Amino acid sequence: MQSRIQVLALLLIILLVGTSSQAQITLPKVFGDSMVLQRGVKIPVWGNASPGALVIGKLGNIQATAKADQQGKWQLKFPVFKAGGPYVLEVAESGKPASAIKLKEILIGDVWLASGQSNMEWQVQQAKDASREIANANFPEIRFLVVEHSKQVKPQPDIFAGKWKVCDTTSVKEFSAVAYYFARKIHHDQNIPVGIIQSTWGGTPIEAWTSREMLLTSPITKARTLSNDTLAPDREDFIQDSLNLIKFWYLIYNPQNNADKIVPAAEYNDADWTSVEMPKLIKDFRAGSYEGVAWLRKKMILPDSFLQKNLTINLGHPEMNYSLYFNGQEICKNVWNANPSHAYTIPARLVKSGENTIAVRIAMLWGGGGLNPADDIYITAGAARVSLAGKWLYKEDLETALPKIRNYQYYPTVLFNTMINPLIPYGIRGFIWYQGESNAGAAYDYRTLFPMLITDWRQRWQQGNLPFLFVQLANYMKARPLPAESEWAELREAQTMTLSLPNTGMACAIDIGEANDIHPKNKQEVGRRLALVANKMVYKQEGITSGPVYKHYRKEGNRIRLSFINTGAGFSTKDGKEVSGFAVAGEDKQFYWAKADIEGNEVVVYSDKVAAPVAVRYAWADNPECNLVNSAGLPAVPFRTDEWKGITQH
Q1: Rounded to an integer, what distance in angstroms lies between the CA atom of residue 495 and that of residue 449?
Q2: Global pTM?
Q3: Which of 480, 514, 546 is a domain's end point?
Q4: Total structural domains in the chain?
Q5: Interaxial angle between packed helices 487-497 and 443-461, expressed in degrees from 0 to 180 and rounded to the nearest 10
Q6: pLDDT tens digit string along 373-411?
Q7: Residue 606 to residues 163, 594, 613, 629: CA-CA distances in angstroms?
Q8: How far out from the chain centre does Cα 134 lie?
Q9: In this structure, are residues 574 and 564 in contact, taking their beta carbons and an 8 Å threshold?
């Protein structure tokens, strides 16, 4: 028996030795053809090989070596390179030329990691002037690596998927619009190659992007992070959630029960459908929330002058995923606002005398859905217009119900594990970040969580206080007639407070949001403002990079005088009207709109309703009406002088 065990053990050793001797050298997916490597630092390259093997790397004519450890892991570092290229990277085990990996068309420049939720993820093809921007996107020295979505309960050594792409009219469509416009300006202003590693996931909170170790240091996140220990990669509901997510989006994008052939037809019987007034959001007339696919139908007689002509139909601003049908024929399939204008051509051959039928299939997600009441909906034939407002018919549950999703991507640290950890220690110039919408309900905690994330990432990259540039939340939601408390204002305040960390910079977007869209289309200006901050903070260029920032105040009777920095050559208003956006309060903490006078680089604020003001707030709302700018046209950063307890403070 003992001899049999010894024989089996020997066979096992031989098998393991044979396997290890055949091990192939590998690189993680963050490395690839057409990548950009970071200038000005020792360039790390890492991977796996046979345990103990000598790994030889060559970048251009420069060689570096490293020895693989007992697990086969190795890391080598090339010396500092200046911007330039293209180069070839070769990596091989010593004595095994057949094992060599060769990567081509590599540039040396500045690499920025772009991360956050949907406003950073929002694609060029979804944003403002998409067609024109895509047509002009020919920048061979701008490259993107888009990290595909993935979530895991343990840190991973490699990203799930992703490939470096050269920026051109084909590839740019799916790049982050903010990151692209940032990269384009940096490339133009600094005349260097720019690489963007885009690691984003819409709707996600900051906790998902932070490491477990860092989250355990705060009582805010410790308990929930520890609760993740009940998760496991092979746990049934974790696996099922991923499968459900695939099925969920399949059902969104693919009509079920032959609905797209049956429901849009003119002869379809919609007698039992609910009558609704459009344009309107579904949540405004439906009791309770609904998540699924719903249908809208409308029959109408068009003027004779519309016959035998190509028509244009405009749906205003529907939910992001929808399809439009006219007399039974599909006119468009809009996926994630691929056509932000929501205007489409109806071919003349489809237009009938008498009754015409319009049908819209809408994915009702996250409490949205319907046709936005802020927009006109109509059909035009040249200058003639027919409104589509009024009676429509509405029906749910004509298709397969969407599976329930637990959204594990919202859980603490699961995105750090798969979409950040595998990128470390790739050489980078810094970070750009657009996130916070999903944390607005706990904005006070963001004062702690945001600096935690910045510190966490910097410590792990071990490149010192890497520049961390971020976007302050844009204005959004319905404007309120009177001063009021605001979760979004408190989140913006937490972001501003984070500027106390060294080497951080913020782009204010309080003037370029949209009341009815959490994803404002003007990503060009967001990217430009981020690049302005980088130009001064990182690249040491002169210039105004921020709007006015509140510094201090002093009382003058029934008035308060405010001082600012970053005023440039002086204040003005964006629209040329009187200054708006200020509110004052007395000891009773009741705020009233205030008048504001510009006096040099100061603003004097007062209200007839507040005899003894003690506090001032500016742009303190979800969607404030504010117009104060500096000589560079950059908006004043929202602020308050008081420290009264907010609505998100425990």
Answers
A1: 10
A2: 0.83
A3: 546
A4: 3
A5: 30
A6: 667 788 888 888 888 888 889 898 888 888 887 788 899
A7: 57, 5, 8, 19
A8: 19
A9: no
